[in-house]
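Backbone-to-sequence.
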């Protein structure tokens, strides 16, 4: 595995250590993977809990933002810091199941070359009914307007090549639109069902109201980005970096 597991966290002092232990128990210590936890200027004990985790796990790297910049920015910091070819993002509150890292990895392994993103979709969400209802409406609206065929675009567990992510436009909350943004670059997206677990400690960082209004603005922005996409089809035989980037997404090597 040439894999970085990027975990964005904000105030997950009670969730992050059990999650890291669970990832190590699932993937083993020996595999070629690394965890990169990006602490977005947490105000609870997350930083000290993470330094304890670093003492126990040599393949864990912790990066801390000086100011809170949001989940998308934290993911981007982690992807930039990664040196591995493949990146999986996973929520730091333990709602995603580490066993699904292998599910997504296997799906990418079997996918065609033009699949640049494997996205989890939560088969059964373990959130309040209000959140589930809001998410269903948001997914239906987004799916209708963007035609991204992604049943659960905001699900935290996703796998892509580092290079794929680095080519995407960056903005706050862009992590919720990765399927549409990857399609805009010319890649295909495969969605696979994943487990979802209840949050054990702390509370969600996202309220229904703030997500609704910000989500509408973001959706309009992504529609505009898709409409204005430019994707030159570069003739075979020419060896510009752009052509290489677009045409040659390296595959998983066994
Ligand atoms: N870095 C960073 N991570 C965040 C922020 N807000 C949420 N997260 C993390 O993103 C993941 C999902 O957030 P969560 O609050 O559980 O959202 P929900 O599952 O949609 O209710 C968790 O790992 C959070 O710690 C933020 O502002 N910055
Ligand atoms: Mg959560």
């Amino acid at each position: 595995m040439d894999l970085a597991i990027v975990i964005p966290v904000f105030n997950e002092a009670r969730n992050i250590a059990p999650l890291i232990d669970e990832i190590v128990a699932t993937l083993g210590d020996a595999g070629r993977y690394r965890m990169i936890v990006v602490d977005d200027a947490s105000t609870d004990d997350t930083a000290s809990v993470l330094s304890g985790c670093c003492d126990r796990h040599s393949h864990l790297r912790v990066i801390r933002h000086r100011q809170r910049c949001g989940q998308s920015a934290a993911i981007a910091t982690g992807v930039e810091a990664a040196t591995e070819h493949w990146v999986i993002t996973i929520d730091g509150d333990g709602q995603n199941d580490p066993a699904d890292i292998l599910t997504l990895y296997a799906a990418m392994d079997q996918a065609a070359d033009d699949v640049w993103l494997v996205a989890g979709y939560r088969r059964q969400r373990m959130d309040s009914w209000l959140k589930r209802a809001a998410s269903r409406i948001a997914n239906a609206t987004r799916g209708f307007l963007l035609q991204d065929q992604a049943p659960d675009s905001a699900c935290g567990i996703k796998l892509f090549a580092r290079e794929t992510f680095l080519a995407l436009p960056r903005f706050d909350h862009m992590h919720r639109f990765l399927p549409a943004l990857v399609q805009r670059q010319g890649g295909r997206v495969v969605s696979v069902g994943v487990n979802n677990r209840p949050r054990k400690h702390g509370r969600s960082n996202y309220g229904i109201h703030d997500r609704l209004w910000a989500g509408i603005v973001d959706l309009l922005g992504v529609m505009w980005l898709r409409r204005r996409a430019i994707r030159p089809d570069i003739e075979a035989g020419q060896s510009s970096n752009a052509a290489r980037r677009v045409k040659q997404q390296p595959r998983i090597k066994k």
